[in-house]
Specification:
Number of strands: 4
Distance between the termini: 48 Å
Oligomer: single chain
Order of helices and strands: HEHEEHE
Strand order of the largest sheet: 2-3-1-4
Helix content: 25-40%
Largest sheet: 4 strands, antiparallel
Shape: elongated
Structural class: alpha+beta
Strand content: 15-25%
Radius of gyration: 18 Å
Length: 130
């Protein structure tokens, strides 16, 4: 009987994990910006390509080709926050190799599964020296 309950608990956890992954994927797809978007954006680049062994180099080259300023990076080396107030920045970043472009505000705070429970800007890893 205890083995059967453990199996049921494992199936329940698996179902919750799959539901969360599906909802997160749908949310990220809906959050992608159109090519006309500008402002403060987060660009996601592939982790590696066969020509580039430096993962942060993708964002630097993309910023230069899109004529955008690099504002910062996130904890994953393939994510770069860029700023340019002219429209069309998202499209230029995609042409430079970005696989996805989002508004930066949603990704700039420390979060667990997308939720901090804190007001925007109150908590920052940069303030902690990270």
């Amino acid at each position: 009987m205890p083995g059967r309950l453990h199996g049921l608990a494992l199936l329940f956890m698996l179902a919750i994990g799959l539901a969360w992954a599906g909802l997160m994927a749908a949310s990220l797809l809906r959050a992608e910006l159109p090519d006309e978007a500008g402002g403060r954006l987060l660009a996601v680049f592939p982790f590696k390509d066969e020509w580039n062994k430096d993962r942060r180099g993708n964002g630097i080259r993309a910023a230069a080709s899109a004529e955008a300023a690099i504002v910062g990076t996130l904890w994953l080396p393939n994510m770069v926050i860029l700023q340019q107030d002219m429209p069309g920045l998202a499209g230029r970043l995609r042409l430079a190799g970005a696989v996805a472009v989002y508004r930066a505000e949603a990704f700039e705070t420390f979060s667990l599964a997308g939720c901090t429970g804190l007001p925007q800007g109150l908590f920052s890893l940069r303030k902690l020296g990270a």
